Amino acid sequence: MIAPDPRHHDAHVKAQTLIESLPWLLRFQGDTVVVKLGGNAMVSEDLLDAFAADMVYLHTVGLRPVIVHGGGPQISKALESKGIESEFRGGYRVTSTEAIPVVRDVLREDISADLVERIGRYGVQAIAVNGFDGGLFQATRRGAVVDGKEVDLGHVGDVTAVNKEALRPHLEAGVIPVVSSVAPESDQDTLGLNINADQAAGQLAIGLQASKLVLLTDVPGLYRSWPETDEVISTITVQALEDMLPGLSSGMIPKMTACVEAVKGGVAKAAIIDGRLGHSVLLEIFTPSGIGTEVVSS
């Protein structure tokens, strides 16, 4: 009896995987998906390459990916090289008038440019954008409450308005926007405000009426009761998540708040996923169970 060729089995598994993705390919055809890149995925060459490949795949099968990113470690390194101290208050980077140009340049000229180049290796065009371009974002300065007292964070703010028309020409031309989270405080503002990338991604997803918001993190998802258990919640409603928010860690609160606001603002679903896994975005969008934690309206 002739033994089966193991290559046939591998080919069958690959074909089955493609077939399983078909309903999701049809469902999201032509839809906009906002993906926030952060955490370990931003400092690992292999994960960055996998992320770029995921974005190209989404683009190639008919979705409209929009990337939003921060860059905490890279910003800290650049500030240190210029002798500018990094200080954090209430989970936010205090951003002085001296620091904000460094933040803006690192985000756009280093991180965005690198992502654009990686995507371009596949023959797909991407473009670096920030909140100044085409009036994409308007922002309002914010402070933080530390030990019950309001503290000044400097050039730090929240996105309060999104001009979706700023990205329309790029999306219609099949260009992938790579958005860094800096935004002007007013039409006369030339320095800008440093925006939490999770918050910026959530507001952009609302403004674009994206079908989905996906946030890459350094954890498998939202734990049901950390540290008592490492069980990850697969799906959670906005109401249930709002009840949990006060008890979450300071690092998780901005991410889950962004998910809550996005779904409340009309985005069908929002998810946090483990960016330490290669091709995690494809696993989330194109598999029946997805990965991480998905936030839904009800």
Major sheet, described briefly? Answer: 8 strands, mixed
Proportion of residues in extended strands: 15-25%
The CA-CA distance between the termini, in Å, is 56 Å
CATH domain fold name: Carbamate kinase
Cα-atom radius of gyration: 20 Å
Strand order of the largest sheet: 5-10-2-1-13-15-16-14
Give the overall average pLDDT: 90
User: Which bin fits the share of residues in helices?
Assistant: 25-40%
Q: At the fourth CATH level, what is the homologous superfamily?
A: Acetylglutamate kinase-like
Given the structure, what is the number of helices? 9
- How many domains? The number is 1
- Low-confidence segments, given as residue ranges, are none
Shape: globular
Report the CATH C-level class. Alpha Beta
The appropriate CATH architecture is: 3-Layer(aba) Sandwich
Q: H/E series, N to C?
A: HEHEHEEHEEEEEHEEEHEEHHEHE
**Tally of DSSP β-strands:** 16
Fold blueprint:
Layout: H1 6-28, E1 32-37, H2 45-60, E2 64-69, H3 72-81, E3 88-89, E4 92-93, H4 100-120, E5 126-130, E6 137-141, E7 144-146, E8 149-151, E9 156-162, H5 168-172, E10 176-180, E11 182-183, E12 193-195, H6 197-208, E13 212-217, E14 235-237, H7 238-244, H8 252-264, E15 269-274, H9 280-286, E16 293-296
Parallel strand pairs: 1-2, 1-13, 2-10, 5-10, 9-12, 13-15, 14-16
Antiparallel strand pairs: 3-4, 6-9, 7-8, 11-12, 15-16
Helix pairs in contact: 3-4, 6-8
